[in-house]
Write a structure and sequence with these properties.
Elements: H1 2-64, H2 68-71, H3 86-92, H4 97-128, H5 134-146, H6 153-163, H7 169-194, H8 197-205, H9 210-221, H10 223-239, H11 242-247, H12 256-260, E1 264-265, E2 268-269, H13 271-304
Antiparallel strand pairs: 1-2
Helix pairs in contact: 1-13, 3-13, 4-7, 4-10, 5-7, 7-10, 8-9, 10-13
Amino acid sequence: MTTTTSLGVTGATASETQPDVAGATRASRPVRQRRRRPRVLANAIAVVFCLVWVFPIYWMVNTAFKPADEVTTLTPIWFPVRPTLDNFTRALTQDGFLVYLRNSAIVVLAAVLLSIVVGFLASAALSRFRFRGRRVILVAILFVQMIPSGALLIPLFLSFQTLGLLNSYVGLILAYVASVLPFSIWVMRGFFVAVPTEIEEAAKVDGAGTFRILRSVLFPLVMPGVIATSVFAFIAAWNDYLIAYVMLKDQGMYTLPVWLAGFSTDKGTDFGGLMAASVLFSVPVVVFFLIVQRRLVTGMTAGAVKG
């Protein structure tokens, strides 16, 4: 009798708990659906923004492979009907391409290297040393960064004319460094501030000097900031047209952005050649980013681990 009662109670309990589990499962489904809706909406918005951003790049590459009659047609052609490499051949064989490529490589690499060295030392001084006027310098750096580069072009031109730096690689390199240095200092200073001072104190106890600490301790820790500023400096110097056109008078010293302007003449614009040249012009930037992006991601991941 006792056994029967026990089994009956157990069976009743199981039968009562089963609907509760099913009801809880059904109740949790609307909650998951409500949580999934904002995520789906955010992903849809992100996809739309990506398509809007990628479309000009796609159209540039698409036009680079089109013959002239497909480029100038009033009806958009989304894919080249008769793909051709004539536009790339015409761009590569244009007068001065290799000379302008060499000029851009010299100027840009020198500007990137100099901006990293000066920005690293300046940001280290502004973040690690306490001296009178430090806050004023930081505010001045931020203020200069807010001024459009075009507004500083005339004072820069007059200063370089007085110093005899016009129409020279040195003047153009210094102009690029001056334009990207405020950003470089401000970004790298943020990475320096994030490094605990205890690490430097431990290095000093081990007998390391100031420059040894900068080179062997701080530099690896702020590497993501160095890479980020180098990417910015490279893109800014590589894409610049206005400063190079104003500062240089000798056509043999022009850079690739000035060379790109040569596809637009009084007779019209060679859109096919211009798009092919733009694709070739973009390749070094993509290659440079692919080279440094792994170190950038690795450094940021290492810096995110708190040990």
